[in-house]
Design brief:
The complex is a heterodimer of chains A (361) and B (249). Chain A has helices at residues 12-22, 37-49, 60-72, 83-86, 90-98, 125-129, 147-164, 174-178, 218-239, 260-273, 291-297, 314-322, 341-354, and strands at residues 8-11, 27-30, 53-56, 77-81, 104-109, 140-142, 168-173, 180-183, 210-211, 242-245, 252-255, 278-283, 285-287, 303-308, 327-332, 358-360. With 361 residues, chain A is of the alpha/beta class. Chain A folds into two domains: 7-184 and 228-237, Thiamin diphosphate (ThDP)-binding fold, Pyr/PP domains (Rossmann fold, 3-Layer(aba) Sandwich); 243-360, Rossmann fold, CATH 3.40.50.920. In chain A, helix 10 (260-273) packs across helix 13 and helix 11 (291-297) crosses helix 12 (314-322). The longest helix of chain A has 22 residues, at 218-239. Chain A is globular and about 70 Å long. The two termini of chain A are 39 Å apart. With 249 residues, chain B is an alpha/beta fold. Chain B has a single domain, classed as Thiamin diphosphate (ThDP)-binding fold, Pyr/PP domains (Rossmann fold), CATH 3.40.50. Chain B is 37% helix and 16% strand. Chain B has helices at residues 24-37, 56-59, 72-82, 94-100, 102-110, 151-154, 160-165, 181-199, 214-217, 221-235, and strands spanning 44-47, 63-65, 87-93, 116-121, 170-177, 204-210, 239-243. In chain B, helix 1 (24-37) crosses helix 8 and helix 4 (94-100) packs across helix 5. Classes of the chains: A alpha/beta (361), B alpha/beta (249). The A-B interface holds A 26-27, 29, 53-55, 57-59, 61-63, 65-73, 75, 77, 91-92, 95, 99, 200-205, 207-214 and B 11, 41-45, 47-48, 54-55, 57, 60-68, 70-71, 74-83, 86, 103-104, 106-107, 111.
Amino acid sequence: MESYSDKQLIKGNYAIAEAAVKAGCECYFGYPITPQTEIGEYLSQRMYDLKRGYVCAESELAAINMVIGAVSTGAKAMTSSSSCAVALMQEGLSYACADELPVVLVNVMRAGPGLGYIYPAQGDYYQAVYGGGNGDYKITVLAPSTVQECIDLTYRAFYLAQKWRNPTMILADGLLGQMMEPASYGEYPYPEIDNSSWALTGAKNREGRAIYSCARDEDKQNEHIRHLFRKYELIAKEDTDWEEFNTEDADIILIAFGSMTRNIKAAMKVLRAQGLKVGAFRPITLSPFPTNRLNQLADNVDRFITVEMNMGQMVNDVKLAVNGKAEVDLINRPVGQWLSVEEIVEGVKQIISKGVQYASI
Amino acid sequence: MQVFSIPKSMKENAKFTFCPGCDHGIAVRLVAELLDEMDLKEKTILAASIGCSVFLYDFLDIDSIEAPHGRAMAEATGVKRARPDKFVFTYQGDGDFASIGLAESTHAALRAENLTGICINNTTYGMTGGQHGPTTLIGQKTTTSPMGRFRETYGYPIRIAEHIALCEGTAFSARVALDTVPHINQAKKALRKAFQVQLDGLGYGFVEILSTCPTNWKMTPDEAHERVKNEMIPVFPLGIFKDVTDISE
């Protein structure tokens, strides 16, 4: 058990930044945008002190491509941004997936669509999980719910990116980025991955290596995409992660991701105290999504209710996972004040008593 | 006595896919010769681009990574910041470098990145079949300016080498052509300088190469080189626009 002395009060954005440093991030490239700007501010000094790479990029387009350039040499590198600016990085993510490059990207979500505003929201679930880039590809997406997880999942993001040579996103939100909690860094817990078989180091004592996705041969292109999707299946098999609480006897399971998880656990306790058999479920990896586990749970559960700060995005992945075995409902608010425990409890009661499938608070 | 051979930095079985009479082949060969002569092959990483230049990795036996359209200088920056001991260059068309990638190209120069940029200016988008681009000349007919480029709708072409020379972080910026043997020799000299300033850590080295596109210009190779001389050079004058190593002044 950790002693209190290991912990310090850390802001979510700083936690992500320092965890990246401890994970061995050699270069950071970024462009300012609220509510994640502290990451770049912190790293500008920290990377300078450590004689590592740092560039205030001219745009998010440039930032993601700088990361692509850096990781192509085998270096660990990261960028961070928020919602409307992550939209500018989608092209880069498509290229990085096609080229199998271990890009690490942080999205501290704000409200949208368009410019939206800087209050918290979870409207980028689709953007993260389904992407806005062209072609068939999947990135890996991790959703922290506490400042401690901002650290732990940043470590994991660097590891999974390297392990699978696939872009990996930490999908946080403005609430998490701006709040302070006790947390501890510990040590980067993962092994280093040998990338000498593919990294660009100069064609010394070997032929030149080209990292590219353009294939004029259609069979080659088909095979490359199938190869990517065989890899995505392996990622799902080995690295899908979730948490569940009181699911053994549950009739109703509340599902949320990221910081919204905190309130469904509290709402679960309130509803249990009132005699309802309520459980809670929380995907840690949004991509790959814990589809199989939800499908298993659906055998014994009447109703899943997702609680999201958007107009209902993850709810559709839950529906796909449950595949008609149980009811799937939604409690939501698009942006702003987090759905409170009371509001979630009220939403659950509305759904049960009135049979509504949708409780927009 | 052997007087001609394929540069070591080119793949032995490389077959250019450029159109007959296109100057890309000469430009790529000059790059390969310099990589050999300056002993750079083993430490070189190319950030490739989109356009007719896209297949460079089929021709050069060096490490390379593709960049999305316009982003080569951003990727090159990432490579260089991660591995400052490598020789890093881009090879881009005028659309890639100076239209969709103008921000990346300009800011790499402003940051004084130790990189080398090579831009092939043929006044059109060659790969997609000859559309109006950032360097299309006033009066020039393309598939998207069939009446000829005119100011009211299309504005003016950009003088890339002069633009890059204005950036404080630029160590060397020149414009060359490949229409005559003396011009080819000057081009190689300029490229050597643009490579050397990177190696010496002086900042951004840049060469704009005026080049032909006989297919899309609908000209023979000879006619195309005449056009470079008679129409392009008067608008895009050859010369060195910045050279921080020049101490003659």
